[in-house]
């Protein structure tokens, strides 16, 4: 018996010697780095699916929504794991993602009295997060409210363009007229605004190059 095994001997009561209740076994817990593979991903999902659903349901309030959140988390885990190549603790990352996506889901359901500006900022952040080329380039974990905060820290004209073009979905010509600048200037402000937003310390991680704004 190894020193680790001796130190974690299970007591008859179902707790270990430290008094902690038994937890679902994480078969990768003691592996320094776990390479991504479809099999490894399936193992983590199979081992922790029920636990992930319960954790999400505890936040959002019902089992069906908990299953939906868990499924989103599994997809996000796969993307991040595949991008990094290896993970030290797949289970830990999974439950970090579950928590954040459950909080996002609960926020969507919670009626909050918002000013017009706050509502527009939230709408802009949600639409920015849904852009296919935005989140995949960021390895960090963040909620939509973190994007709202980061949005408010942008230079004012970049912020205005993102709100008008992405949040309110105005046509390029309309934004150009309101901002009193050329269409090319609007596209430049939008591209630089997105780049600045993705580099915010509130959205931690490595970034990839954004495509050109059309």
Automatic annotation (TrEMBL):
GO terms for biological process: DNA-templated transcription initiation. Pfam families: Sigma70_r4 (PF04545). Gene3D superfamilies: 1.10.1740.10, Winged helix-like DNA-binding domain superfamily/Winged helix DNA-binding domain. Residues 150-199 form the RNA polymerase sigma-70 region domain. Belongs to the sigma-70 factor family. ECF subfamily. PANTHER family: RNA POLYMERASE ECF-TYPE SIGMA FACTO, RNA POLYMERASE SIGMA FACTOR HI_1459-RELATED. This is RNA polymerase sigma factor, sigma-70 family.
